Amino acid sequence: MKVTEHIAQSEGKTLFSFEILPPLKGQHVKSIFDNIDPLMEYKPPFIDVTYHREEYTFKELGNGLLKKQVVKKRPGTVGICAAIQNKYQVDAIPHILCGGFTKEDTENFLIDMDFLGIDNVVALRGDAVKSETYFRAEPEGHRYASELVSQIQDLNNGKYLDEELLNSSKTDFCIGVAGYPEKHMEAPSLDSDIHFLKKKIKAGAAYIITQMFFDNQKYFDFVEKCRKEGITVPIIPGLKPIATKKQLNLIPHRFKVDLPDDLIMEVVRCKDNKAVRQVGIEWCIQQSKELVSAGVPILHYYSMGRSSNIDAIAKEIF
Ligand code: FAD
Hints:
The protein is an alpha/beta fold. Helix content is 40%, strand content 18%.
């Protein structure tokens, strides 16, 4: 079922959903199931599965030369989606990227998703590969998520890359896109970022999932700005509980989001990561409660592959 249909059927009740990462290459699918199992109690209507593009590594050949290798550390997005739908009978939502994909790759990926009975996809640009500073599209690929949304929407209208295909069937994907309450790291301003967010909606996206934030006011302000710009689709807040001291620096660096001073101070005072984890859970419970009171359609949690803290939060909310 589509995310928009899940929301329509919820009769105003806030739903619970979460995002998982495919396991690192070499790990068994059981490692994913072990983390999903405890969260099924909260009846998620869907589970998002992230996509991880290739990385470049350099292997020493022993003669002073280096060999460039292309590796995918977390393959398996498609397989995990199929496994989730099969095992739990809930909607699995693959993330799909511009980065590393030609338009032909994208079309074939979408055909696989359609055959698997996947009803939703989250369309993203992706980041630059780790060894590069700026995002670079494939020669036959998309530069921005809005272009990817257009391609998915074309397929929903039965328009394939080869326009001479006869009797082509239409897909019916519900398309989600990313939004950034504290603006995307490359955007010159929040207004310009929202301008391009609107482009993704105009191209056919039906809902927005936000980047993580730790101060609800940032989300409320963002929603208000989006509504003023005429963006009417659901804006689903994304939440992540802090779990380690290291994340105090890592999260702002990696995701370009601010942490409130009160949260920073509480984490700094913690003796160990067990205490930090508890602070993170309590902070996230407070955020969740306020967002539920504000009537958000869904609370979407970034589990990062570990569920015990999400479980502790969901217990208090759902
Ligand atoms: P876009 O919407 O294309 O925007 C990228 C930048 O370009 C923004 O600054 C925007 O303002 C600007 N822009 C957009 N259109 C134009 C235009 N026409 N002209 C000029 N500027 C423009 N990454 C992964 O690798 N895998 C995942 O599974 C994944 N899941 C995510 C899930 C969520 C909910 C979020 C919030 C992020 C996720 N990401 C993931 C990270 C995401 O890929 C990065 O944040 C990426 O840098 C931007 O992706 P986007 O889809 O927001 O890009």
